[in-house]
Amino acid sequence: MAKVSPNILVVDDDVVILKFIEFTLKGLGYQTTLAKNGKEAIDEAKNQHFDLIISDLYMPLIDGNELVKRLRKTPEYQHTPFIFLSGNTEEETWIKNLNDGADDFITKPIKQKIFISKIQSHLKKAYLRKDILDSARKDDISFEKGNLIYCANRIKPFALPRKHLKTNIKAVYSDTDFFMALQDTNTWGIIIDDKAKWAITILDKITEIVSHHIPISILISDADDMDQIDQLLSSKISNFLFKKLNSKLIIHQINSNVQREHDLKNKYLNALNTAAKRSPIRFESEFEDDLRDFNIQILNQPYDKLPGGDYYEVVDIDENRKILILGDVMGKKWDAWFFVPAYIAYVRSTINFYLSREEFDFIKSPGKFLEIINKSIFKDLKLSEVFTTLSIITVCSQTSKVSIASAGALQPVFYNAKENKTTQLNIVGTLLGVIPDAHYLSLIQDFNIGDKLLLYTDGYIEAVNDRTGEMIGDDAMHYALDNKKDKEIIAAKELETELAQLFNISKYDDDRTLLLIQRN
C-alpha cells in the first residue's frame, strides 16, 4: 500500500525556486525538506528517508552531479528517484548525468503541469518497487533463502534463541551494515534491540523505508517502561518482543510473524505469475529462424524466472527480409515488465503502419524508424519516464546486408570471416524518450558467408566473475564470440555456456537477451 504523504528532498541554491517547488508539492499533500546545496542534502539524507529527490544541477560546495553519485553509493538510496533541475538542454549533459545515476530532467523555467506529472509518475514507480518487488523478491521464497535482520548492540548483544527458528538471523551492528543486509536477500522481518542505540536513533528512517512490506519488532528490556513503549508505538512498528519472556514464547512469536510474511509473499507471487501467464505479450526463451542462408537465434532469460524488462520481436517483411527488435526497459522483474507491453505495442503498430505505406526502406534506414518511435514515446508522459534501450536490425538475404540502428543499446560484436577479425561496431544513439528530436544513424553492414553478428543486453556484461568479483564487461562478449568463430553455425546456448565457463559465471542478476545472426 502506498504511503499517504511522500517525503521529498528539494535541493537548490535559488531560494525562489525552492519556495515555488515547496508550495507546489505541499499543494499535492507531500512533505518537503529543503536544502541549499549538496552538502546540506547529504546531511538531511543521513537523518531521514526521502521517497524522491529533486536537485539543481549547478550548485556551490557539492553540485548535483556529485550529489547523485554519492547517494547512489548508499544502499538506501540506490533506487530512490532522483530528478535534476537544469536550464542546460545539451544532450551530452543529459546522458552524462543519467549515466551517473539520475532518473530524469526537468528543464527550467519549470512548467508546473509537466513538473507535477513527472513527480507523480516517479513516485508511483517507486511504490511499485517497494510494494511488489520487495514483497516478492525471489521466485523461490523458502524460509532457507531468506533471513531476519537483527539490529544488535555490539558491546552486549541480547542472545536471540536460534535453534528452532524457521529462518536464519543476520546480526548487524551499524546503519551501513543494516542497509546492505536489506539488499542481499529475502527479508522476513527486522528485530531491533532497544539497547542498539544506533538503530533506535534512525528508527523513523528505517520505518519509512520498510514499514509497508517488512514487519519491525522491537526487543524490550523493561516491560514496565511505558514511556519508552509509548514513544516506540508512534514509530509504525509491528510488535514488541519482551526479553524477560520464556525463550519458547519468543521463538513462537518470531515464527508466527515469519509464517505470516511467507504466506503473504506467496499470495503476491502467485497472483503476479498468473497475470504474466495470461498476458498476450510473451517471449519464448529460445527462438531460431532461417532467412535463406541467414540463421537467426535469440535467447531470452528473465531475472529469477520472473517476467522482466528485456523484450524482442521478429517481423517478416517478405521472403527476403526480416526486421528484428531488441530492447531493454531499465529495471528488474515486475517494475520493468509492466512497461514492456506498452513499448511492444508502439513498435508493432508503427512497423505495421509504415510497412503498409512503404514511406521508407527499413533496410536502408532503420534509424528513421527509431526517430519516429522516439517522438511518440517522448509525447507519452508515462513512457517517457521509463528509459529503454532499443536496437532495430534488418536482414536482407537478397542484398546480403544487415542494417542496425541503436537507441542507447550496447555496441554489437561482429566477426568478419573474410578478414578473420572480431570487432565492436560503432553504432550508438540516445535512449528513447529523452530528447524529442534525437537523430539516429543507420549502419549498413555487408554480410558475407561465415560472418557473425552478436547483440546483447546488459544482463550479460553486468554478470560477475565469481573468482575476481568484478563484472565481466563487453570484452567478455567479444572474447566468447571470437573463441567460437570457426564454427559454421554457433548455437546461441553454446555461446552462453562458453561465456559462463570462460568467465566463471554461476548466476545472472538481471534479465538477459542474446541475438545471434550468422550466414552459412
UniProtKB/TrEMBL annotation:
Q: Does the keyword Phosphoprotein apply?
A: yes
Source species, domain of life: Bacteria
- Coiled-coil positions: none
UniProt keyword terms in alphabetical order: Phosphoprotein
Which Gene3D superfamilies does this UniProt record tie to the protein? 3.40.50.2300, PPM-type phosphatase domain
In this chain the Response regulatory domain maps to 7-123
PROSITE patterns per record = RESPONSE_REGULATORY (PS50110)
Residues bearing 4-aspartylphosphate? 56
For this protein, the record's SUPFAM superfamilies field holds:
CheY-like, PP2C-like
Q: Check the record and name the InterPro entries matching this protein.
A: Bact_response_regulator (IPR050595), CheY-like_superfamily (IPR011006), PPM-type-like_dom_sf (IPR036457), PPM-type_phosphatase-like_dom (IPR001932), Sig_transdc_resp-reg_receiver (IPR001789)
Q: Which residues cross the membrane?
A: none
The name on file for this protein is Response regulator
